[in-house]
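I am still getting used to backbone structure tokens and would like to learn alongside you. Would you supply a protein for us yourself, any chain you care to pick? Start from the sequence, derive the backbone structure tokens from it, and show both lines together. Go ahead whenever you are ready, and we will take it from there.
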Amino acid sequence: MGAGLGTGFAGMSAAAVISPMLIAFLKMDPYMAVGIALSSDVLASAVSAYTYGKNKNLDIRNGLLMMVSVLIFTVVGSYAASLLPSSTMGSFSVFMTFILGVKFIVRPVMTTKEAMNNVSSKKRAIQSIICGTCIGFICGFVGAGGGMMMLLILTTVMGYELKTAVGTSVFIMTFTALTGAISHFMIGGFPNLTVWILCILFTLIWARIAALFANKATPKTLNRATGIVLVVLGIVIFLFS
């Protein structure tokens, strides 16, 4: 439920919510927990992206450019991290979730589609590639925060209207989560079937509910709802991770 709300409202990766819960409550192997979380993210992000796209709140062209950059430089960042001494940076995603939630409540994103569309297509494409490169490298290096970083950069750096930012973010997350889930299961084996199905089902249901609400809400209401969801999730993850 928490992962679905985070995905539907803010394009948040389910891995940031589901993984610590599975590890804390079910004592599950962390690697397998991440695989289950990523696979739960695939359908949830896809149905959210469909809902946002149906309401014309999705930038597919630049989303694809950013996605390619993210995927390539996630691998580069992961390799770079393997060359350095290991360090614990799992709190990065939790901290970012909480801070971003506060940001949406205190300083809501009120950019309009008209203002967003004033940027030239060439400039937007260059921004997508550069920002995707940065997001991918940091996520690969740190191992967390992809969905949150995309939302933050799309709204603050690239000047996206909030609904389009979330729609584009979940579109990208659909493919990045699929890639991650497949690699995890190929390496770590098949997960517990009951846990896997329940995680996928409830993440999907609540992502759909959140996406439907978000696309009908006013910018002010959406900013407030997104902020509250992120703050609550940040606190819950911190307490149980």
About this structure: Residues 1-240 form one domain. The longest helix spans residues 162-188. The mean pLDDT is 82. The two ends are 17 Å apart (CA to CA).
